[in-house]
Amino acid sequence: MTKNLLREFAKRNNNALKTVVNPCPTGSSGAIFKIKEMNINTLKVGDLIVRQKGPFSTHFMVYVGMQNGLRMVAENQSGIGVRFTTLKNALSGNSIKRFERFGGSDKQRRLVIPRIKKLLGKSYDLVVFNCEHFARWIANGKVESRQVKVASNIAIAGGIAMLASNNGAIKTLGVFSILSGIAGHSSQR
User: Fold this and answer.
1) Distance CA 17, CA 109 (A)
2) In this structure, which of 31, 36, 123, 132 has its CB flanked by the most CB atoms within 10 Å?
3) Beta-ladder partners of 33
4) How would you classify residue 38: left for phi > 0, otherwise alpha for psi between -120 and 50, otherwise beta?
């Protein structure tokens, strides 16, 4: 509850894009939460960088460190696949929306770049292996995309609504929409 209140406070104060909340237990008096500022200068290998991609989508990148004075990231780019590139190139003129901390230990963090190297060139797939699938797999070991889950839910809900129609073509489209939504959910591992 307190964690959610702190996040809401940060969001209302325009700090949500830079703030990470970590619990810091302090004995019997309960948990006190420590707010840690997260910005471009505090990134570590494996942290995620998220930028706006379109009106309803975001693009995820994995920070991999500095090389020749440039901030480097790994991303899964449509038409290209998994690659290393500069942060400037990956941002494509868009600003950073938020940062997300790496979800593993320091030992797991050391495995980030070797894991990425094994995936170099792997093809982008909007439903099965997009930029968010890639970044979340590197950050927490789960191949998942919240964006695909939301789109799948919308497809299922829209399909159910279309089934109520008296028009056969719309009902057929509703069935297709539901099946597409189910396929989107089943692609999440």
Assistant:
1) 22
2) 132
3) 23
4) beta
